[in-house]
Design brief:
This protein is of the alpha+beta class. 28% of the residues lie in helices and 22% in strands. A ten-stranded mixed β-sheet has the order 11-12-13-14-9-8-7-6-1-34. The protein has a six-stranded antiparallel β-sheet with strand order 15-26-27-28-33-30. It has a five-stranded antiparallel β-sheet with strand order 2-3-4-5-10. The two termini are 53 Å apart.
Length: 787
Amino acid sequence: MPSPSPSRPSPSRRAVLATGTALGGALLAAGTAVPARAAAPATQRPAAPASTTVHSPADSWRTVLDDADLLWRKPPKTWYEGPYLGNGRLGSGIYAEPGATTRAVRFNVQHSEVQDHRPEFGSLFGLARLPIGHFTLEPVGAITGVEWWMRLRTAQLEGTVTTTAGTLELRAFVHSTSDLLTVEVTPSAGERGFRWIFHPAEAISPRAAFKPLPDGYTGNPPAVTEQHGDTTAAVQPLLAGGQHVTAWRERTRGSRRTLYVTVAHSHPAATARDRALRTVRTASALPYGPLAAPHRAWWDRFYRKSFLSLPDARLQRFYWIQLYKTASAARKDAPVMATSGPWLEPTPWPNTWWNLNVQLEYWLIHGSNHLELDAVTRALSEFRDQLSREVAAPYRADSAGIPRTTDTHLVNGASVTDGGYGVGVPGQDPPTPEVGNLTWALHNVWLSYRHTMDESILRDTLFPLLRKAVNYYLHFLTPGPDGRLHLPATFSPEYGVNAPDCNYDLMLLRWGCRTLLDSARLLGVHDPLTARWQEVLARLAPYPVDANGFMIGAGVPFAQSHRHYSHLLAVYPLYELTGATADERALIERSLAHWVGFEGALQGYTFTGAASMSALLGKGEDALAYLGQLMSRFIQANTMYKESGPVIETPLSAAQSLHDMVCQSWGGTIRVFPALPAAWRDLTVHDFRTQGAFLLSAVREKGRTRWVRLTSEAGAPCVVRHGIDGPVEIRDRHGRPLDHEETADGTVRVRLRKGDSALITARGDRPDLTVRPVTPNEPAPRWGLPG
């Protein structure tokens, strides 16, 4: 089948930015518009406006969060089984000490800013994250059992360790706003002699256990333990200068003993010791309770920004755990999440990965209304100069790119064997010409713009960086005999073969040029490259396809099992192709089936991508089935995930797949409950953030949508496919009818100014507008090790 022609307006690109013209096109594409309908005559209105206030009692959050708590009734033996705590920087995973499972409990201490600083050995050795160490809680007696709860609502671990000598009651948290791990232990009489021991880790790249060391590379010298009054410090010097320091102090108050731990990192100065000592001394002046109070308040505010309840108990718990996990692993001002977040276990991937991991890690922050965690936009803006240094010297003046792997400052370092992967140059190899990663990362920035309509994101970060990312492609586009513009061979992550007209790059380039043109119009920018971007859209080579669907590139069919959907980005997440025509839908269905049909190399995020693509097509049953395969085959007891080492993106992207089933807002239209399986007859969503900067609340009862409310934060045009059967009425926050336009397929356009809201119900219906958890269809075991 021929590829969709790039010269025609893409039916999926109904609206890119909130301009009246684009959204008008969206309405026409969605269905035949009917004339604007005036408000109902006064005789049809209720005698007095009915309330449109949505009630969201605190008990709703308490119910779903308490239900989602993880439970352990047997000791976890690995990272993939145990509890975890974090704040985007400091992280701790808790499980039985390997090799001494009945004698000690391990509390890992890791930090997302702790890394080496030897770029000559590449990002995965010389700039790698460095392990710090762990504490062991060593009881007097042998451990015979545990009962632990990871309490999501308060973001703390609490429970009991039972031993042959007695019990240890414990509770622990990593402070939400300070790099502080606090563990309080209340021992029984027989366990008063328990002890804490710190075990420094060797400060060497974790990749050393998986790949040969580069010539000349060695680990850093051992840590030195120092005593500073009541506080102990393990000082880790670095060969490149600087240090990281773990400091701790234990205090006894009555029968309770409290351990206070912090980590600090500095380079090139050796200032970490002083900072770490100050943190511990200040914190240890407070008992556990007062210290935890602001921490608990932070988490309460975090959770109440959005709400989701669905009748699948296992998935609902999984979803809320992912929100907990994300806020434990991310902060706007923290490093962009590495492959395992702030935690660090043995891994061949001890840094940040930009050819899929980062993008998937942060998708869920948009719909769940947690833009305060958006480190991607911040980091790309802060380190933008480095992005130009990462492309080959002849292109640095006007281009930018991001390597497959970087450190916290987006530096890749030297090209050494197995030490990292640079941007590369189209048509050349080595290095591998993987050139589209910055453009894809900027799609995340575009999502942050679209979900907030914050023009400063568009003006200050997205437009200037996307201009440089697209410029890099423009250096290599050449006309072919067919009159089309073609790319030389580039690399489609992670297929393993270079291909000309690689779909990964064609899809990103087309999205990039469209977005630059739309952004320039919105910003009022008269850019000299406008004509070139328009030419690219008109003449760019079509996406290579064959009888099985999308190929990797020209002459390279999709012919082997492949976990990555790099060749399908135009479908998801770019939504450049959405199945708006029968041929386009058939192409997507054929490509999806062919991709997942090769079983050998499929991994967890294969199934999250397949679930979201199925949701795009409105196939809720298929989406749920793909998530079911993910849960049964890949997700671990504590909802973590591994591929040779811990990688955090897959469970987080599964939460986004749930979002895609519940709400989609691409192309200027908000779609409410677009891909729900039949079993989900009841569902509640509240303050779900959509493109256009709307907050969506909606309730489904007994298989039908009862009400939809949208609140505008930016005054953008509001187009919504509400899913309510039959005629509807739309009222403002005071219960008064709102003017709106209807289309034949159940889409309405509502005029909302900034701060306005609209409630959509079936005509004459006055449903209860209370946000409540729904009843699960059947019971399900808790996550953790409950039995």
